[in-house]
Amino acid sequence: MAPPARKRAKGDGGGSAAAADKHLPWMNARNQDLLSTDYVEIDPVNKADLDGDKFPSQIDFEYSALKPVLFGPMTKFAISGTFDVKKDAAAEWTAATGADVADVVLQFNWFEMLIKSLDVFHNNQRIASSNEQRFISAYLHTMLYAYMSPKSKRFLCPQAAHPAYCIPKDKNAWNAATQTWKDYAAHVFTGKFVYFDFFPLFQFPFFLGSNFMNDAVPTLLPLDRLGKLHIRFTFFDKQDHIFRKPAAGVAAAKSYRFKLQEFKMCLEEARLSPAFERQLASKTRMEFPGVTRLQVVDSVPDGSPTHKIVFKDIYLPEAVLIFCLDKQVSSGTYNFAGGTDQNVFKDHRIKHLDFSFDNKNFFIKEPNFGRFRDDTSVLKQLADHLLFPMFGIHPDPQKVTLRAVQDGGDNSPFPHVYVPLCGNFIDKERLVPALDDAGSCISRKSNLEIAVQFEVANSQPSAVYVCYAIYTDVANVLDVRSQYFSSPYLKYM
Hints:
Elements: H1 17-21, E1 34-42, E2 58-64, E3 69-71, E4 76-86, E5 94-95, E6 105-106, E7 115-122, E8 125-127, H2 137-147, H3 150-156, H4 179-188, E9 194-198, E10 219-221, E11 228-235, E12 243-244, E13 255-272, H5 274-281, E14 285-289, E15 292-298, E16 306-314, E17 319-326, H6 327-331, E18 350-357, E19 360-361, H7 378-387, H8 402-409, E20 416-420, E21 422-424, E22 429-430, E23 446-454, E24 463-471, E25 474-479, E26 484-486
Antiparallel strand pairs: 1-13, 2-11, 3-10, 3-13, 4-5, 4-9, 4-13, 6-12, 7-8, 7-11, 14-25, 15-24, 16-23, 17-20, 17-24, 18-19, 18-23, 21-22, 25-26
């Protein structure tokens, strides 16, 4: 329907429509902050390493910006390649097809399982938002992808071939006969090249905030004032560990690989108005929203009835997450191909937890939030996951069900214990230990101690217990004059 005609006012004089339209705000470019953007594709410094049959052990990107950069859907890594197979050691590599699906199963979130580390450097400084050991985060990200809201995944993982969809849905259900694997394999074992966009979760500056493209507009980073940025991917030397085959028979003789065809860094450069450039140039400090993860990895002696996890000299976090992995994961020697476990995390066997901060117990009565297996606490577990979600990532209510989270997730491929330490979900106000009437201890750094009581079977053997302290407000702070990045939560920065 056409808009109604504008009546001419007395004394209008019959001015032109073009003159009237100039009153529309968007037509005055002088009032715009962003004038336009350019898309830039950058090849690796060591691009020649992609041409051989061997998967590269390291891929580096260098970028000296001439303009500020917007970190949104066009700033990412673009990856394409083929899954190849050869029938035996003497055969040639050929593209894997649907005929190979029944003979192999990929490790969940397989691409991140190939990465040893991802590091971002500015000048001689490594920019970090979290303090973590190598090898662990890929397993955590697998759970976050599995429970993530579809609204976030449609931007983060738009292609059906994305490794974020290579994830088990049910407990003990990840093998070559599982329908979930067959559904994903149909998109990657095609005999053709596969492509996917890769936004590294919580990796500054490619992932800022918690809910990519849902919480806020793309964040602007004045890289043109900071000099060179260096991004380094370090990969495992071999890929054998991500392909699980039968132990014997014709299928056991087959070999598989992911052959990279292209690996590019894509950026969106911003052309700003002169007024906004002057405003940006006047800033001396810039804060970037995001997640900080402080990690403790403990090798608990086999069969221990109790254990204590300690975070030393930290601010009281928003929440704590605990899960259990094979001890070889923490050393980088875990081999999915040689195992039989079909779940991402191992059963943690935790019965209950007790918390203290600054040597003050949170509770002196029972039940409390550490008794997560109590029948009366099950609803709180569900509410915590949905209303105060892990790492601030909006969950999918269809997947985060009562059955999935009760008893510490024992009925899922991701057994874990998640405990928010906030009483107000909106303002993230921390709970105060019971013996601190004034609440003064939460305004300073101290030790957070978590006493773990295991079930009758005691702790999981041959395992490590991973504990995260979580903050979701400010990930990095840039001192514009010194060009130095820091974090309010990391000691060494």
